[in-house]
Amino acid sequence: MAQKKYLQAKLTKFLREDRIQLWKPPYTDENKEVGLALKDLAKKYSDKLECCENEVEKIMEEIRCKAIERGTGNENYKRTGIATIEVFLPARLKKGRKNLLETRLNIPGRELRSRIAKTFGFQENYIKIFINKKQLQLGETLKDQGVTHNVKAMVLELQQPEEDMRKNVQVEEEEQNEAKLKEKKIERTKRGLEILAERAEMVVDPETTPYLDIANQTGRSIRIPPSQRKALVLAMGYHEKGRAFLKRKEYGIALPCLLDADRYFCECCPELLDTVDNYAVLQLDIVWCYFRLGQLECLDDAEKKLNLAQKCFKNCYGENHQRLVHIKGNCGKEKILFLRLYLLQGIRNYLSGNGEEAFEYLNKAQQLFKELYIDPTKVDNLLQLGFTAQEARLGLRACDGNVDHAAAHITNRKEELDQIKKEEREKKKRRLENINTLKEMGYSTHAAKQALHQASGNLDEALKILLSNPQMCWLNDSDPQTNNHQESPSQESIDQLVYMGFDTVAAEAALRVFRGNVQLASQTLAHNGGSLPPDLQLSADDSSSTPSTSPSDSAGTSSASTDEDMETEAVNEILEDIPEHEEDYLDSTLEDEEILIAEYLSYVENIKSATKKN
C-alpha cells in the first residue's frame, strides 16, 4: 500500500512537470474512455522509474478516472450546487477506501452520517465523521461547519466488526453494547476533564480533593493567568487521555481526544506554549494517530503540524537543546521525540513521492534509534535494584547507557521530585490558608484569590490590595456565606460602627455597600479616613435596592448522591490514565519505530537501487 502511494505521488509529479492533462485527448477520447496514448506514456514513466509497466499503466488509469470524476463533479456543483465529498473508509474494508458521495451543503450533519452509513454498510449510531480535523456536528448544517465541495471526510468506527458479516443476534448485541460503552467513555472523559479543570479554578484542599496542576520541566507549578488556565488544563487533560488510548492502540477513540486537545491549546497564547513541550508532542501524536489509522491522506496539514512540532521543540528546548541541558542536565530522553518526528517526516515525504527527502529523514531516525537502543540486560540489572522498567529506560537514555550512572540519576531525580512535590503541597496549603484567612475577614473567595494572585501569594500585600481597592469586594462567588445580601443594614451593625467612632451616615452607607458586613465596612472606613471612597459612595444608594437572596433549597439527596457518584467515576477514569511518572511521554520501547524505520528504509533503498541502474 505504501509503495503504491509513493508511485501515485511520483506519477502525479511527473504529469504536473510535463503539463499533461490525462482527462483530455489523446489520453481520453470523446466518450471519456482511455486513449491509446496512455499506454505509451506509461511505458515512458515505467522506464524512468524502473517499475512494472502494467502497474504504472494501472495507476495512471486510476489517476485519469479520478480526474474525470473530479471534473464532472465540479461541473455538476456549478450547475446544481450539489457538492462532492471524498469519503475515506476504515482500513479494515477490503474495497477501495476513497469513495465519492454527492450531497447538498444545507443538510444537517445527521443526514450526511445517515447517508454514509447506508451507502457503505455501517450502523449509523456507531460511526463518527471527521472533516477538516473536526468531528461532524449532527445538529448543524454542513455549510455552517465549513464543509465545502471536494472536501475529505474520514469515517471512524466505534466498534470493530469481525470479518464474517453474517453475525448472529447475540454477537450483534454484544458489539452494539461495546460501541455504546465506547461512546459513554468519550462522554465521561469530557465530563471528568471539565470537573478537574473547574477545580483548578476553585480553592480545594490538595490533600483530599484530586485536581490537575501544570508544572514546568523541573516539576514545579507554573503561574498561569486565570484567563488561560482552564483552556490549558483541558488541553493537557485531553492530551493525556488521548495518549492513554494511543498506548492501548485504540486509535479511533484517541483521535477525538487529541483533536479536542489541539482545539483548547489554540485558545492559549503562543508565549505560554513556549514554556512547555506538550503542544509539540501533541502535533506528533495527532499525525501518528492518523498514520496508524491508515488515514494520513485525510490530514492535509501533516507537514505543517510536523514543522510546527519542530519549531516548538526549538523554542522550548533551545538551539541544540541548550536550554534543556541547562535545566535537566541532559537531553537523552527527549531524543525519543526527535526520532518520532524524523520517522513521521520520512514517512510523509515517501508517501508524497519525495524519495531523497524521505531517505534523509529516515536515516536520521535510524541513527537516533541506534543511539537510543537499550541493551535488555542493562534494564534487567536496574530491575534487580528495585527500579521499574520505565525508570530503567529513562535513566539509561539520560546517562548514555551507563548502568551505575543511571541508578544514581534515577535515585537523585526521585529524591528531587519528592522534595519539589512536598514544597508544592506546602505552597498550596499556605495559599488555601491565606484564602480562608481573607474569607474570615469577610472577603469573597474570588476577591481573595485575585488579590493573592496580584500579591504573588503574600497575605499582607493581598490585604493592602483589597483595602486599597474596596471595589474588589464586589467580586462575589457562589459561596452563600460570603454573599450575605441585606436590603438595609441592621441598627445593631450601625451601632457597632458608631461605637468604633465612625459617623452614623458613613456607617450606614458603608454597611449598605458591603451588604451588612461589619468587618469589611470598618476596614474600608478606617483605611479611607472615616468615609467611603468616591466610587463607592455613588453606589451606596444602589445597594439599598439589592433584593435579598437566600441559598436555594438543596436538591433531593438521592439525586445529588447519584450525580456525585457519576462525577467521582468520571474523575477517577481520568486520573487512572494520568501517568505517575512525569516523563512517561518520553518513554518508549521503540518496537513500533524499529519496524517502521526498517520497512520504509527498504522502500527507499529500492528506489535508490533503481536509480543507480538507470
TrEMBL record:
What InterPro entries does the record point to? NUB1, NUB1_ubiquitin-like_dom, SASH1/NUB1_homeodomain, TPR-like_helical_dom_sf, UBA, UBA-like_sf, Ubiquitin-like_domsf
* Domain of life per record: Eukaryota
As recorded in UniProt, coiled-coil segments are 42-69, 162-192, 407-441
Where is there biased composition of kind Low complexity? 539-561
Name the keywords, alphabetized. Answer: Coiled coil
Q: What spans are recorded as compositionally biased (Acidic residues)? A: 562-587
Which intervals hold domain UBA? Answer: 373-413, 423-469, 488-528
Positions of region (Disordered): 525-587
Q: Does the keyword Transferase apply?
A: no
PANTHER family from the entry? NEDD8 ULTIMATE BUSTER 1, NEDD8 ULTIMATE BUSTER-1 BS4 PROTEIN
Protein's recorded name = NEDD8 ultimate buster 1
**Which organism is the protein's source?**
Ceratotherium simum simum
**Annotated gene:** LOC101405681
